[in-house]
Structure formats: structure tokens, C-alpha cells
Design goal:
elongated; alpha/beta; 3 helices
Amino acid sequence: MSRRSQTGRIQRHTASYLEPRSLATVLPRPLRLVTFAALALLVAGLAITLVVSRLVGPASTDATAVAVHASMGGFDPAALTVKAGATVKIELSSMDSSAHTDGGGWHQFAIDDLGINQKVGPLTSEVFQFTAPATAGTYRWYCDICCGGKENPSMRGTLTVAA
């Protein structure tokens, strides 16, 4: 064998060791599939966790308060019934993030006839209370911060005071 052919063989042999090798060429196929599946499950789990935490909204802070959730879609529930003269405790929660361009995730619970005007920031809750009027009647609440304000039918609710 000539010196020239031996040198070429050595260079080719050492060159294969110097080339970068990917994980795909090192691991056997079944192990690569298991690794891919594990990574896919991890990413899917994180995505589901983020979506669920966004849909659930802020955690309740007062078990004795009536929960009212406000979002760009309206109030949930959109109607409350209370007894005349009763102390009413409401936990107002904004289900929207600050990324909303209309109102920045802020919401309001306002009843002009009763002098109530409570606001809550994005993805937070606030508990407030008031005394229901002594006489029966129906009062409308609204949010005038976003979504067309109190003119938007979905941004309104009804408080019914029963005798």
C-alpha cells in the first residue's frame, strides 16, 4: 500500500470521530420514540395547566360572599336575589387578563340607585358588602369600563330585592 493511500485512510478514519453526532444517531429508535413521547406529554401537560388556570380565574377569598365573575362576555351570574334589608356580600372577580385592549382586564359592578361602584383589576377578586334596600324592587348593575359599557346587554345584571 502506498503512503498516499494510507494517509487518506487515516484522515477519513479520524474525520468520522471529529464530526458532530446528533442524539438521533446515537440513541436507538425505540428510545428516541419514548423520549419524543415524554417531551410531547410534558409540553401538552404544561399547555393544559395554563389553559385551565386561565379559565378558572382567581381563587375565591371569602366563602360567605356571593361570587360574581366579570369577563368580556358579561357577568356570571347575571342575576341575584336578596332579602330586603339584608347585608349582601359580593366577591367580584375579573376573569380577564391585562392583555385585553378594551379596559385592560378591569371590570366594574355599579348600581347607581344604591350608590355602589366597585372595580376590580385583571385576574383578581375584591370582596365588598352593602345593605339591600328595605323595600322590594329590582335594580340593574353594569360595568362601564369595557365592551361598550352599560349599553352592552351582556355587561349588565339584575339585583332583585325580595320582601
